[in-house]
């Protein structure tokens, strides 16, 4: 296994080796999302024919330009690319071409598409995943961790060949290329309007004032976690936020009576949590959060039958079409068309139902051309 690259000089040599290789480059990253606030890459694994495996520690290297240049042009092979591309983009590493082995496996309709499962099924090798939840921000990185990380790219080149052959056999190569390009150009997801509403256990909180306490403590925790670069749950667990919102403690003793605050983070930052709670008590009624979350897009589908029975019927008909076409072409329904697009179409269809209008609506919503070609006729018939 190649030694870990941690200096600019070693990176320049490794970049030269990568450039002298041939064919696509297999890439993977290791992050520390369960330990750190940021989603940055703490290790980059690369492999190319004629080069071998290269392991790069991007933390101590200030200038990654040699690596940026080496990766500009060749196809990248990643497994579940949407998970790795954001942290690579932070380092100004951007693919010009992409092959996503997980997405390819989905389009080929494999039942299990995790890297370990698909590698064992297609190549006969069993990958160990014992370090997948490790704290990759710790230094120095143990040797067995590096061996584990290197194995994640060791077989990606061969795996790509097997999946490309299967896609061609099933007549799905063009579909896969369109999906890979969609992932490559998708960019980061839109930030949530009220991310604090995703606090685990918030369903136990009742009333605008209590929700205001959730928001206040959540935002205080988020700011501190960002400053410390620690995972928010490591600073203060969600359960503690719910406890504070429910009990509204006003002093240190009351706060410490709550189990979630007896840990180090709860006790050490007690003044911060009490200050956030005190500030939430000063809010006027119109400053408090709504007890009904703001909604983007259609309501939850289980409410459709009561709110709009016609829309519920349209959704059932549209889903039947998607299911039938997906089964015919051996595709998971969610890869044939994004479920949210189907829901939006059924809830608010174009005023005139025709194949052309359905096609235009699907394309405007982000569906790819191949998906529209498979579905527009059937959806137009179902919705009319």
Describe the structure.
The chain has 20 helices and 6 strands. It has 384 residues and is an alpha/beta fold. The chain has 3 domains: 4-185, Ribonuclease H-like superfamily/Ribonuclease H (Nucleotidyltransferase, domain 5, 2-Layer Sandwich), CATH 3.30.420.10; 195-287, HRDC domain (DNA polymerase, domain 1, Orthogonal Bundle), CATH 1.10.150; 301-383, DNA polymerase, domain 1 (Orthogonal Bundle), CATH 1.10.150. The protein has a 6-stranded mixed sheet with strand order 1-4-3-2-5-6, with helices on both faces. Helix 3 (81-90) links the parallel strand 5 (75-78) and strand 6 (97-100). Helix 16 (309-328) packs antiparallel against helix 18, helix 16 crosses helix 20 and helix 19 (355-364) crosses helix 20 (369-383). The chain is flat.
């Amino acid at each position: 296994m190649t030694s870990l690259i941690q200096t600019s000089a070693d990176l320049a040599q490794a970049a030269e080796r990568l450039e002298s290789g041939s064919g696509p480059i297999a890439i993977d990253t290791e992050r520390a999302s369960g330990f750190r606030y940021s989603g940055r890459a703490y290790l980059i694994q690369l492999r190319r024919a004629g080069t071998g495996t290269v392991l790069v520690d991007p933390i101590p290297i200030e200038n990654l330009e040699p690596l940026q240049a080496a990766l500009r042009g060749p196809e990248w092979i990643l497994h579940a690319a949407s998970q790795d591309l954001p942290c690579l983009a932070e380092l100004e590493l951007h693919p010009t071409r992409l092959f996503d082995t997980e997405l390819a496996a989905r389009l080929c309709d494999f039942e299990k598409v995790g890297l370990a499962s698909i590698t064992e099924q297609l190549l006969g090798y069993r990958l160990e995943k014992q370090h997948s939840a490790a704290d990759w921000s710790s230094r120095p990185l143990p040797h067995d961790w590096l061996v584990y990380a290197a194995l994640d790219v060791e077989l990606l080149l061969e795996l790509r060949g097997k999946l490309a052959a299967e896609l061609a056999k099933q007549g799905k190569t063009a579909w896969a290329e369109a999906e890979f390009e969609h992932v490559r150009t998708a960019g980061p997801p839109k930030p949530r309007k009220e991310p604090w509403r995703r606090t685990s256990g918030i369903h136990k909180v009742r009333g605008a004032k209590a929700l205001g306490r959730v928001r206040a403590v959540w935002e205080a925790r988020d700011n501190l976690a960002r400053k410390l670069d620690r995972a928010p749950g490591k600073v203060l667990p969600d359960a503690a936020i719910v406890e504070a919102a429910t009990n509204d403690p006003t002093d240190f003793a009351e706060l410490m009576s709550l189990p979630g605050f007896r840990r180090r983070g709860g006790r050490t930052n007690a003044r911060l949590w009490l200050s956030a709670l005190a500030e939430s008590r000063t809010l006027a009624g119109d400053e408090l959060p709504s007890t009904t979350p703001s909604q983007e897009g259609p309501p939850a589908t289980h409410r459709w039958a009561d709110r709009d029975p016609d829309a519920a019927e349209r959704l059932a008909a549209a889903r039947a079409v998607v299911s039938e076409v997906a089964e015919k072409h051996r595709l998971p329904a969610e890869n044939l068309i994004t479920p949210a697009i189907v829901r939006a179409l059924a809830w608010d269809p174009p005023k005139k139902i025709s194949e052309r209008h359905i096609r235009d609506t699907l394309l405007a919503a982000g569906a790819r051309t191949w998906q529209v070609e498979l579905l527009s006729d059937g959806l137009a018939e179902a919705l009319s």
